[in-house]
Amino acid sequence: MLTTVVEKLKAQFPNSILGVREFRGETTVHVKKEDILNVCAFLRNDEAGLFNYCSDICGADAYTPENRFEIIYNLYSLSYKHRIRLKVFVDEADLHCPSVISVWPGANWPERETYDMFGIIFDGHDDLRRMYMPEEFEYFPLRKDFPMMGVPDSIPLPRK
Amino acid sequence: MNIEQAMDVRQQRILAALENKNTSVYFDDALDNEMILNMGPQHPATHGVLRLLIKLDGETVAACIPELGYLHRGYEKLAENVSYHEFIPHTDRLDYLSPLMNNTAYVLAVEKLVGIEAPRRAQYIRTIISEMARISSHLLGIGALAMDVGALTVFTWTFREREKMYDIFELLTGARFTTSFTRIGGLAHDMTPEVITAVKEFIEQFPEKFNECITMLNTNRIFVERLDGVGVITREQAIAMGMSGPNIRAVGLKHDLRRTQPYLVYNELDFNIPVLNDGDCLARYYVRLNEVKESVKIVQQCLDKMPSGIVHANEPKKVLPRKEQIYTRMEELIHDFMLINFGVNPPVGEIYHAVEASKGELGFYIQSRGEGHPWRLKIRSPSFMNLQSTSQLVEGGMISDIVAVLGSLDPVMGEADK
Amino acid sequence: MGLEHALGDTALTTTIDSAINWCRKNSLWPMPLGISCCGIEMMAFAMPRFDVARFGAEVFRFSPRQADLLIVAGTTTYKMATVVRKIYDQMPDPKWVIAMGACTSSGGMYRTYSVVQGIDQFLPVDIYVAGCPPRPDNLLHALLMIQEKIQRGESRSTPMTVAAERQEQQLLQIQGINNN
Q1: What is the average pLDDT score of chain B?
Q2: Of B203, B241, C82, C85, which is least packed with CB atoms within 10 Å of its CB?
Q3: Which among A141, A147, A157 has CB closest to C121?
Q4: Is residue B273 part of a domain?
């Protein structure tokens, strides 16, 4: 079933599928950033896929000069009980990515979390605030260049 | 007109109404009636440190904004800086009501990445401890829900049962609830006959005690009426918002990863998945209650079917050797040294593995670059996604229903905030 | 003294301070600040098996205004620190603080960007309880030590002058906000 979905996806978006990778029985599809919204909408509504459940959205920092950030979409189909993973590259110079809230409303908080941790701005997200860190915090903690113990005095403590 | 003048007008109208012996005053401007209420982060009914900003129109909730992050401990950053083995103790403190379940979930994800599988006996033991953890978590969930809506006795009763389980966990792992019991490719050690006897004794007496607790609640009209029809969510909304676990099974969807994507030995066991259709707080409570009964069945079957044998996979380069072998044999000493200092070193790749934890779908997404520590580890926590629909559930309801909704969602902030 | 001699064996004399401290130590009202895992062990500490009522401290008050013993149970993050401090400031004097668990006392296993490495950076602490999480017995021991401390007449209450100064500063701040 999953192979049909991938074939259909390739046929439907010949220019926006950058590659398909298999590892331990899981399929990862690399998608062009500009088309992610269309691909997601297709996967959600296509009869062979029906990926109606967005398990998770997260970011990753590859720490390379180009295409530094990745956004990973882990999708699940409640009807066919299969999973697929989409991956989008985001360059450090242009930290924008289309939001998929219109496809899965549940993508709201995971996208906010990705913004909080990596600083990726989701266009079309109506409430892009920090998820965990205080609003006045300036850094993005899960980037590889952020030190584990944080930046001293970046968050104020109450006085003793 | 500034605020002070507006308040004056308001006060004058209230005064005039009182002089005319009217008991109710109506204002045309809706803003006049609204009030912002801050609930949490320190509030006994928020199950930890959740903060809700609530806009009230009289006693009706007009809007609700949850605010998280008061317990953000930076797990994902920690995971990138410790080896795969060293992260196991951190998983205890994710959902601290069912640590054994988190241990199992994490270890299964790493095993999938490394490409090894634990022996059959270890799989059975993992199933038993997962289900025991589910019972203990649901017991607290039910007890806390009852306490939130005003019935304290059940909470003390469920805690009595939980104490018995803690004794078993202590006998098994050495700690009451920060257990760190599983290892990559196996377990810390085998389940001893004493523990098996203790589990058997507990499982035998438990259904009766559990019935006492739930009879007390199910026959209590106040309890039932405070939950019935409160915090309703439709099936489509629940799927769209990414709910999982008992919360999604309360909207009539038979989605349980133990059946849909079987892991461990669940496909060899006979158990039902409780499903209800109402989607309100009472349905979520009933699903949890029935799940506890199913878990008891699972533990009994596992105890009957459990094979004998080893509990560590025969993969010397991936699985930590036994302590007594390290002290006596050269080969094992070398492997131990390599595993502790350089780690498991799984192949380059990425995997996502999810299990049905007590709160819902608990998934680990791991990116490996062939090193001893994960390049990126993402925890898909069920409480986080379940909490997302809080505003939908409470908006339009009464203010006193917020605690019932939160109690029935059963979030754990350690997991939601990571 | 001649008083005891006159009263005979039927009466006992003491200082008024010691009598008040005896009352205080046996009727502590804890403010449970259950932040994370330790909060569960704190619940167990109040529940029938460990039964804190034996030591007169079973009246858990979720309002800081009615409590005199703050139990900080769980990892305190930078975001939570202001909240903890505010709760402490709201408690009436005299008051005592227990830092329960490794994270609260020293940051514990969380050496990360978001966790305060010990609540004593912003709060005076009377007793540190070791363990991750500490067993309820351990917390009971901490409670007994607090009782000993109270009996000795030690309390870390804020001196009146400092309290007045702080209040004045807060008022000034509020006025400043209003003027802007």
Answers
A1: 87
A2: C82
A3: A157
A4: yes
Residue found by looking up tokens 């507006």 in the block = B6
Q: Which residue has the tokens 């095993």?
A: B111
Look at C114 and A133 and tell me if their CB atoms are within 8 Å.
Answer: yes
Give the number of C-alpha atoms closer than 13 A to the C-alpha of residue A81, restricted to the C-beta side.
10
Alpha-helix residue ranges (DSSP H) falling in B20-47: 30-33
CATH number at residue C129: 3.40.50.12280
Using a CB–CB cutoff of 8 Å, tell me whether C78 touches chain B. no
Is the CB of B68 less than 8 angstroms away from the CB of A104? no
Q: In C26-52, which positions are buried (b, 16+ CB within 10 angstroms) versus exposed (e)? A: eebbbbbbbbbbbbbbbbbbbbeebeb
Q: Is B74 left (phi over 0), alpha (psi -120 to 50) or beta?
A: left
Q: What is d(CA A50, CA A82) in angstroms, rounded to the nearest whole number?
A: 10
List Cα–Cα distances, C160 to B41, B114, C94, C125, in angstroms.
29, 63, 12, 19
Residue C36 banded pLDDT, cuts 50, 70, 90: confident
Mean predicted lDDT score pLDDT of chain C:
82
State the total domains in chain C.
Answer: 1
Asked whether B102 and B91 are in contact (CB, 8 A), the reply is yes
A/C interface, count of CB pairs below 8 Å = 38
| Min Cα–Cα distance to chain C from A157, Å | 7
What pLDDT does residue B25 have?
Answer: 66
Min Cα distance B52 → chain C (Å) is 14
B43, HSE (Cβ side, Cα atoms, 13 Å): 16
Transcribe B67-136 into DSSP letters. E--TT---HHHHHHHS-TTTTHHHHHTTSTT-HHHHHHHHHHHHHHHHT----HHHHHHHHHHHHHHHHH
Q: The domain containing residue A97 runs over which residues?
A: 2-106
Cis ω for the linkage preceding B321 (within 30 of 0): no
- Do B73 and C80 count as a contact with CB atoms less than 8 A apart? no
Contact check, Cβ <8 Å, A58/B378: yes
Residue C107 has a pLDDT of 86
Position B152 in a domain: yes
Q: Is residue A97 part of a domain?
A: yes
**Residue positions counted in chain C:** 180
Q: What are phi and psi of B377, to 5 degrees?
A: -130, 120
| Contact check, Cβ <8 Å, B156/C47 | yes
* 3-state SS, residue C45: helix
pLDDT, residue C86, reads 87
Q: What is the CATH number of the domain that holds B246?
A: 1.10.645.10
Q: Is A153 on the interface with C (CB under 8 A)?
A: no
- The CA dihedral of C60, C61, C66, C70, to the nearest 10 degrees, is 70
Least CA distance to B367: which residue of chain A? A60
**Whole-complex ipTM:** 0.92
Specify whether the CB–CB gap between B124 and B306 falls below 8 A. yes
Q: Is the pLDDT of residue C177 over 70?
A: no
